[in-house]
Amino acid sequence: MVQLQRLTPLVAVVFMCGAAHAEVPAPVADSDYSPINMDEARLGQLLYYDPIISGNRNIACATCHNPKFATSDGVSLDIGEGGIGLGPARHPDPKDIPQLRVGRNAPSLFNLGAKSFTKLFDDGRIEADPARPSGLRTPLEDEMVRGFASVLSAQAMFPVLAQDEMAGNASENDVSKLVREGQLTGTGGAWDVVAKRVAAIPAYKTMFDKIYPDIGAGRPIAFTDVSNAIAAFVAYEWRSDDSPFDKYLRHQGVLPADATAGMALFYGSAGCSVCHSGPFQTDNQFHAMGEPQLGPGRVERFETNQRDIGRYRVTGKAEDIYAFRTPSLRNVTETGPWGHDGAHTDLPAFIRYHADPKAGAKTYVEHALFPTYTPTKPDWAIWNDPKERAAILDAVKTPPVTLSDTDVTQLMAFLDALKDPTALAGRLGVPKSVPSGLPIDK
């Protein structure tokens, strides 16, 4: 049952009238997260901002997940390898023109250290699976190495293997060559090369020796150690549970009237909480929501189409075609553009579209925000194909919801109440320098 003692009279009336689709969640607690080793998090901070882990030593995790852009990059689809600068100002390196845009919008990183996040990436291709030796189901299948401390740790390191994200083009560096040859894991593989780069830097070696006793006793630094440290930093830096909504749930504050009304809609007649449920406003499941397709899509290098079919590529189940993971809504007002490929740059307009995709598609115009770059594949080829667009919209199974202007205004007020200034500011912040001596994106 809904805990009415947490609700204002207005919200209580809405719930008692039977309009609710899900309960208002309980307050987030420390038990929702795993403990953090602060020395490990501080090491991870340096590694997160250090380009040493990319193939050409020119891209860090922070390049596409930067605190300036609420742990995303401020654009619909970025250019990774072959780009210079951050966010909307990023542009092609004239000496190394990128081959493709990155296929999907860079997701924000808030609360990914919470225990409930067991499936990551928009298609959930990284997932906790206790039945597997590594404890994870990943695209590497049985080649997946052991030692990743969490799903977050594993997720953080797959961009290192992606040509257009961090690895680089096929023959540009030792990492990209190994990726091209399929030598990803094991001694001498791409991940091992990156780990040895890190281990060769004395300051990093000293920190690893101190934090991990078995490394101090002589075990070589493994790639999983690098990844685990980065995950510890992300989990600590961007834990987000100090918003006005969190204070309200803990009886430490009140919400403005429009946010209270928006909460009633969110957990009631607007139906948002059917998918955006739980303490972080996500069911961590996959739904087809008719989002416009743009960019190169998430396809294999040998494929010529640009079709992003979402979860289906992982499961092969017909019901998963065009289904994508429900994102958390923490700090959502700051993390645009929105949608799995950033097709929306206006959040109120996105709310309207999301409530009734088939109606929204009739009036949708191209709203993407890109770095200056002319791709080899037309960005809107799929969406502008009537058959492809119809297939995307036909996959939508959720019932349409009609929202008034007032409804949208109130929902926006509620979403604004999910904004956490502590998480947005970060806790450890951006380091002044990194042990490799390479420049930092900041």
Question: Could you give the topology of this structure?
Answer:
Blueprint: H1 9-16, H2 38-49, H3 61-64, E1 83-84, E2 91-92, E3 119-120, E4 126-128, E5 136-137, H4 151-157, H5 163-167, H6 174-180, H7 190-199, H8 202-211, H9 213-216, H10 223-237, H11 244-249, H12 257-266, E6 286-288, H13 312-315, E7 323-325, H14 347-355, H15 357-363, H16 386-394, H17 405-416, H18 421-425
Antiparallel strand pairs: 1-2, 3-4, 4-5, 6-7
Helix pairs in contact: 1-12, 2-10, 4-10, 6-7, 7-10, 12-17, 14-15, 14-17
Polypeptide structure, described:
The chain is built from 18 helices and seven strands. Residues 1-20 have low confidence and may be disordered. It starts with 8 loop residues before the first helix and ends in a 17-residue tail after the last helix. Strand 1 and strand 2 (91-92) form a beta hairpin. It has 442 residues and is mainly alpha-helical. Helix 4 crosses helix 10, helix 14 (347-355) packs across helix 15 and helix 14 (347-355) crosses helix 17. The chain has a three-stranded antiparallel sheet, covered by helices on one side.
CATH architecture of the largest domain: Orthogonal Bundle
What's the CATH topology label of the largest domain? Cytochrome Bc1 Complex, Chain D, domain 2
Largest sheet: 3 strands, antiparallel
Strand content: under 5%
CATH first level of the largest domain: which class? Mainly Alpha
**Strand order in space, largest sheet:** 3-4-5
How many domains?
2
| Overall mean confidence score, pLDDT | 92
Low-confidence stretches: 1-20
Order of helices and strands: HHHEEEEEHHHHHHHHHEHEHHHHH
Rg, please?
Answer: 22 Å
Record field, number of beta strands? 7
Overall structural class, as computed from helix and strand content, comes to mainly alpha
Helical content (DSSP H or I, runs of 4+): 25-40%
Q: What's the overall geometry?
A: globular
Oligomeric state of this protein: single chain
Q: Whole-Å distance between the termini? A: 46 Å
CATH superfamily of the largest domain: Cytochrome c-like domain
Q: What's the total helix number? A: 18
